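Hi V.,

Quick status before I head out on leave. The structure for the redesign project is tokenized and pasted below; the design run finished overnight.
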């Protein structure tokens, strides 16, 4: 029986390799999606992504996930899926907190990255994955970046992504009709993307949370720059020399 089990394991491994799939432990994936945050947050682990949620600001400060070429398509689309509060936090945000605010309910881990699983799709609509986002940004430049990340996932087989709000200063605009249910409006949003393998690279982007058009090349930042803006540490599981090298440089032409 033991010999048969070993044979089955070997055949499975050969099948994965012959199909071009990367054999990677769940622990490695978890390590590369880890974010070291500087504020007090509630860490939440979902089926397809991870969240560091601020209960005082009532928005996620960081959302991370990995996206594979197999995850960019599927039959589980957003039609019929409603935004819904997250019972895992106190004082959950609801869609009513966004009513007549002028802001879209902006996904951090996007619906379009979760069509591969019904559970993943439904969990992407939890309000702990949502920030108030300018509607032009939400449907324009931010959406363009999301689609580009899917292109990269197909090109490189897998990319690691972290995104969230950039909060400048001590006071921020808020939305919501009830005083105790105000939701913080970010001044801008960041996204950092990592690819591993023989030619690892990382790139970051910052988009202002307003209706202005922002060419993608002008939005490019290094991961180091975004770490300074947020006070967070991304991709810390990388070897130190690799992390220092790739986080100090960002160029769209490298992708």
């Amino acid at each position: 029986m033991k010999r048969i089990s070993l044979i089955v394991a070997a055949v499975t491994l050969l099948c994965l390799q012959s199909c071009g799939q990367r054999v990677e432990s769940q622990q490695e994936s978890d390590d590369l999606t880890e974010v070291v945050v500087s504020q007090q947050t509630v860490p939440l682990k979902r089926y397809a992504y991870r969240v560091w949620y601020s209960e005082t600001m009532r928005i996620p400060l960081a959302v991370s996930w990995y996206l594979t070429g197999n995850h960019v398509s599927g039959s589980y689309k957003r039609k019929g899926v409603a935004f819904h509060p997250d019972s895992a936090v106190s004082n959950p945000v609801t869609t009513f907190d966004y009513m007549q605010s002028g802001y879209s309910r902006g996904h951090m881990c996007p619906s379009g990255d979760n069509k591969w699983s019904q559970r993943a799709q439904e969990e992407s609509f939890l309000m702990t994955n949502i920030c108030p986002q300018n509607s032009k940004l939400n449907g324009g430049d931010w959406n363009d970046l999301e689609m580009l990340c899917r292109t990269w996932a197909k090109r490189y087989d897998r990319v690691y992504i972290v995104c969230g709000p950039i909060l400048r200063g001590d006071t921020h605009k808020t939305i919501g009709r009830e005083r105790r249910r105000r939701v913080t409006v970010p001044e801008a949003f960041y996204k950092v993307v990592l690819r591993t393998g023989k030619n690892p690279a990382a790139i970051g982007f910052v988009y202002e949370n307003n209706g202005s058009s922002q060419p993608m090349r002008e939005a490019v930042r290094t991961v180091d720059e975004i770490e300074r803006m947020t006070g967070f540490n991304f991709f810390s599981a990388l070897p130190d020399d690799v992390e220092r090298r790739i986080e100090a440089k960002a160029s769209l032409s490298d992708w």
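Above is the designed sequence. The CA atoms of residues 21 and 157 lie 8 Å apart.

G. will cover questions while I'm gone.

Best,
W.
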